[in-house]
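Dear colleagues,

As part of the handover before I leave the project, I'm documenting each prediction I ran so the next person doesn't have to rerun anything. This entry is a single chain, and its sequence is reproduced below.
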Amino acid sequence: MPLGLAFFGLGTGYLIFGPQELFGFPAKSESSELTNGWWGFWMPGMLQFLCGTYILVGLTWFNVFGVGAKSTPLYAAGIETTVFGIHWLAMGLSRMRGGSIVPNGFMSVAFFLVALLGLIVFKTAGDGPVTLLFAGLMAVYFFEFFYCFDLFMPLSRKALGLVHILTGLLLMYLTYGIVLNLSLGWHVYI
C-alpha cells in the first residue's frame, strides 16, 4: 500500500512551507520560492499523485485490493491523494515561476470541500487518525483562503503556518504508523 508515500510527501511539503509562514524563515525571495516550488512539485505533488493513481488503477482496473467495505475508504484515499497531488504539482510550478497566490484563494474553496468529503468518509469508516488529518486539511484551506486574499494579515499567514506544521507532524506520525504496521507487524493506531 503506497499511502506511506503520500503521507510522507504531503508532510514534507507542510513542514517546508509551515515554518516560512509562521516564523518568516527563510525569508521569501526568488531563490527560496524556486526551492520551495521544487520541493512542492516533487514531494507532496508527485508522491501523492503516484499514490492516488496506483490505488485507483489497482481498485478499478485490476481489483488487487478486493471489493467491499474495505475498498470504500481506499477509493476515497485514491481520489483524495490524486487531486491533492495534482494541486501540489500546480502549486509547485506556480511558485517556481513566481505566480500569484491570489487564484489559490479561490482554489482553497474546492479543496476545503474535498477535504470535508475525506473527513466524512473516514469518520464514517471509523478511522480516527485519518479523520483528524482531514480536519487538519480543512483548517489549512480555511486559512489559505484568507492568506491568499491578504485578509487579516499577518494573523492568517501565521495561522496557516501553524496548521501546516501541526498537520505535517500528524502526517509524519501516519507515515511511521503505516510503515511500522505493514513492515514489522506493529499495531500503531492509524
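The CA atoms of residues 11 and 172 lie 6 Å apart. The chain has six helices and no strands.

All the best with the project,
I.
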